């Protein structure tokens, strides 16, 4: 008989952490050997969690089995590896089969779990059996210490703080008691958790439930009474608040809900088996490790900045301050580093030399093709070696220089295919926008062609890790797995995507076919980065997801992108990967070089990389200044950014936090400010703007003053911030009394910032 443990959890809607209506029941079947085996396959604990999770309907009477057995093994190689591994796992006789279909053992376990959940069956027998047979994975000493430390904390003895969630809106219990409980609950959340953001970013709900249950157990010391106590709060807060207050909050909210649910349903929670505790410890250890690494890295970065005499504030007040993720996902607004001390501007740039290149060509075609092809027998091993070798070379260059160039990653023929797919999308490209302003909440997103002259189109979908909650999409993801299509709803419709009555988008085969080459090439890049590169470079060890793909064309005529660093605001982007899509015959005269300031640029100056079709350029998004020099011909590229999971989760959480206020009002103010800047300060072609303000007519000056007077308070704040006015009042007054000279001053100021 297979050893098994399980936990039963109530799942609440993820997008509404305050909801008291359960969304579904989740059953976690714990199979230690299986977990360990999956670890050998290099799968993350999160993945393991969802591998062995069944999600069942919320209504117990509609408890049907099995509804879903997610096997999140995406790639062919992974599937093959899994199948092979599974044989040996099965041979040990201690695991449950988790194959698609109707696995008998698993159904049996689920049935037992269900009955227990409904109170039909007592858990005692099962728990005993588990205790006897459970194979507890070894626990690292640090985690064990941690466990003992928290386990030894005794309840304070004082009245437990009530942490019951607020009653639902329809509840009749509106006594003063309930009100004070609600207050207490809110205060509790505030004081323990810091700030009210949502979303658990780092562990799957299943893992969360394990953690919660273990916390409950650790805290209460009384399996029959799982009321959260102040003691539990202190455990949780001391455990998580340091680095992960969102995590902490989510855990607490879930814990409270869990307890409330078990009280309401009258069901008693099982005593948590040792193996579950061990699992929790492992998860906690996993989290702590991640947290430690990120804190170390942050510290390093801060120290580096201090050493360079460059405090974080230099971002503020210069062109392009910190940007807010939510607003700027599409533009991926860069920050322009005016105080770039990394480089001596006098050092001339040189062409990237051959020794800096990695070849993407192989005896079996381009690396992209090889990554997608399945080979047999000895050839399979050989090609794997080739891929691994190229990944090693790339990682070496990346580590040594902060950037790497992979030549011929896709073949010239593939470039032609890609270009024809892109050319059909040509009418839908729009001028890119950049974030101009002092900080995340003072600034505007506008198009400034002189700074960034490309036109872009975002393509959604094709993500290797589709259900990553970290992913912050540039639009609506296509429903069909693996499919890609334009992100913008309007463009989707124009290319033939349909919206049915239920609002569910169906992608027809013909739409899928339109972007088949793009889909493929993205898949190969993902494979190369996630499965190869990430394992060979420490800085990429935690990349968990990637952005949508940005297609960009610089339409010639000197269009360029001024020097910038993609991520200086800790927005999560760690690796920028560019695939150039210019047809054969791109010449030096065409310009459009990617100019990179790598590690050696202080001594050697920056390197110029020609945007040759099929070539990949990659660099650390948070380190490398780069620019696109003036392009005289249309220049095409596709860019994707890979996210560091932890940094990204923090960025998303704090963006949510920043914008929980009057989001709509903020957006409107942004739009107002952008329009004002465009029309009056930068010029809309109707005024007499010549870049100086010298020719401004009295009529134009009045127009600007009038427009400024009509701005909303919020918009005034934004515009004043961008212009560098000492106060909003000052800005208004200056706008009212605008003279050609003061307009000139203003414009010169803006020009300095790059506008
Ligand atoms: O196209 C390139 O070579 C670089 C573009 C770039 O820097 C960006 O989109 O952030
Ligand atoms: Fe960039």
From TrEMBL:
Sorted UniProt keywords: Dioxygenase, Iron, Metal-binding, Oxidoreductase, Vitamin C
GO BP annotations, alphabetical order: cellular response to hypoxia
GO molecular function: ferrous iron binding; L-ascorbic acid binding; peptidyl-proline dioxygenase activity
Region (Disordered): 154-176, 318-340
Fe2OG dioxygenase domain ranges (all copies): 542-644
Top-level taxon: Eukaryota
InterPro entries assigned: HIF_prolyl_hydroxylases, Oxoglu/Fe-dep_dioxygenase_dom, PIH1D1/2/3_CS-like, Pro_4_hyd_alph, Pro_4_hyd_alph_FE2OG_OXY
Transmembrane domains' residue ranges: none
UniProt KW Metal-binding keyword: yes
Cofactor: L-ascorbate
Family to which the UniProt record says this protein belongs: Belongs to the PIH1 family.
PANTHER family documented for this protein: EGL NINE HOMOLOG-RELATED, HIF PROLYL HYDROXYLASE, ISOFORM C
The protein's name: Fe2OG dioxygenase domain-containing protein
Species: Triparma strigata
């Amino acid at each position: 008989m297979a050893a098994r443990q399980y936990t039963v959890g109530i799942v609440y809607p993820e997008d509404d952490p305050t909801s008291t209506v359960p969304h579904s029941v989740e059953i976690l079947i714990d199979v230690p050997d299986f977990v360990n085996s999956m670890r050998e396959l290099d799968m993350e604990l999160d993945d393991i969690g969802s591998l062995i999770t069944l999600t069942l309907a919320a209504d117990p009477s509609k408890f049907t089995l099995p509804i879903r057995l997610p096997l999140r093994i995406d790639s062919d190689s992974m599937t093959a590896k899994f199948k092979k591994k599974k044989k040996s796992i099965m041979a040990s006789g201690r695991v449950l089969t988790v194959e698609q279909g109707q696995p008998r053992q698993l159904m049996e376990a689920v049935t037992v779990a269900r009955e227990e959940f409904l109170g039909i069956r007592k858990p005692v027998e099962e728990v005993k059996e588990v205790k006897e047979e459970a194979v507890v994975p070894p626990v690292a000493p640090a985690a064990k210490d941690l466990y003992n430390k928290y386990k030894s904390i005794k309840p304070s003895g004082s009245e437990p703080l009530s942490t019951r969630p607020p009653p639902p809106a329809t509840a009749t219990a509106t006594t003063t008691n309930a009100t004070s409980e609600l207050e207490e609950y809110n205060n509790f959340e505030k004081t323990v958790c810091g700030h009210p953001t949502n979303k658990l970013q780092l562990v799957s709900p299943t893992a969360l439930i394990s953690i919660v249950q273990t916390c409950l157990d650790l805290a209460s010391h009384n399996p029959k009474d799982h009321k959260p106590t102040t003691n539990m709060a202190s455990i949780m807060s001391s455990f998580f608040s340091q680095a992960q207050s969102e995590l902490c909050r989510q855990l607490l909210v879930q814990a409270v809900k869990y307890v409330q649910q078990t009280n309401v349903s009258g069901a008693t929670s099982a005593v948590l088996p040792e193996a579950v505790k061990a699992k929790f410890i492992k998860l906690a250890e996993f989290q702590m490790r991640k947290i430690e690494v990120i804190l170390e890295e942050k510290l390093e970065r801060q120290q580096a900045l201090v050493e360079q005499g460059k405090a974080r504030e230099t971002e503020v007040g210069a062109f392009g301050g910190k940007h807010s993720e939510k607003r700027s996902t599409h533009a991926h607004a860069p920050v322009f580093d005016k105080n770039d001390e990394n480089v001596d501007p006098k050092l001339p740039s040189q062409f990237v030399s051959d020794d800096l290149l990695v070849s993407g060509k192989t005896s079996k075609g381009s690396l992209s093709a090889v990554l997608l092809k399945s080979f047999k027998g000895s050839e399979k091993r050989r090609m794997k070696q080739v891929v691994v070798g190229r990944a090693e070379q790339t990682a070496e260059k990346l580590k040594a220089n902060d950037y790497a160039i992979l030549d011929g990653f896709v073949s010239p023929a593939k470039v032609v295919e890609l270009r024809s797919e892109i050319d059909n999308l040509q009418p839908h490209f729009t001028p890119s926008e950049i974030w101009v302003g002092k900080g995340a909440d003072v600034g505007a997103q506008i198009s400034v062609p002189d700074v960034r002259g490309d036109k872009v189109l975002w393509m959604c979908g094709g993500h290797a890790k589709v259900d990553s909650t970290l992913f912050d999409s540039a639009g609506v993801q296509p429903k069909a797995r693996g499919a890609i299509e334009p992100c913008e709803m309007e463009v989707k419709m124009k290319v033939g995507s349909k919206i049915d009555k239920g609002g569910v988008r169906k992608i027809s085969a013909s739409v899928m076919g339109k972007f088949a080459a793009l889909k493929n090439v993205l898949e190969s890049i993902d494979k190369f980065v996630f499965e190869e590169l990430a394992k060979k470079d420490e800085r990429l060890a935690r990349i968990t997801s990637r952005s949508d793909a940005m297609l960009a064309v610089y339409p010639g005529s000197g269009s360029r992108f001024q020097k910038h660093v993609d991520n200086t605001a800790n927005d999560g982007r760690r690796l920028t990967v560019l695939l150039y899509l210019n047809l054969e015959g791109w010449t030096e005269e065409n310009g459009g070089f990617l100019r990179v300031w790598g590690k050696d640029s202080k001594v050697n100056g920056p390197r110029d990389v020609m945007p040759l079709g099929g070539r990949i350029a990659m660099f650390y998004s948070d380190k490398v200044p780069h620019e696109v020099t003036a392009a005289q011909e249309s220049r095409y590229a596709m860019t994707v950014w890979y996210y560091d999971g932890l940094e990204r989760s923090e960025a998303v959480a704090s963006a949510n936090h920043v914008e929980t206020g009057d989001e709509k009002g903020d957006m409107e103010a942004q739009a107002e400010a952008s329009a004002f800047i465009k029309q009056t300060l930068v010029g809309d072609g109707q005024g007499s703007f010549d870049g100086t303000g010298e020719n401004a007519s009295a009529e134009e000056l009045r127009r600007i003053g009038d427009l400024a007077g009509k701005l909303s308070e919020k918009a005034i704040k934004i515009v004043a911030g961008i212009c560098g006015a000492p106060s909003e009042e000052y800005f208004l007054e200056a706008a009212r009394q605008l003279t050609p000279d003061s307009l000139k001053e203003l414009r010169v100021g803006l020009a300095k910032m790059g506008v």
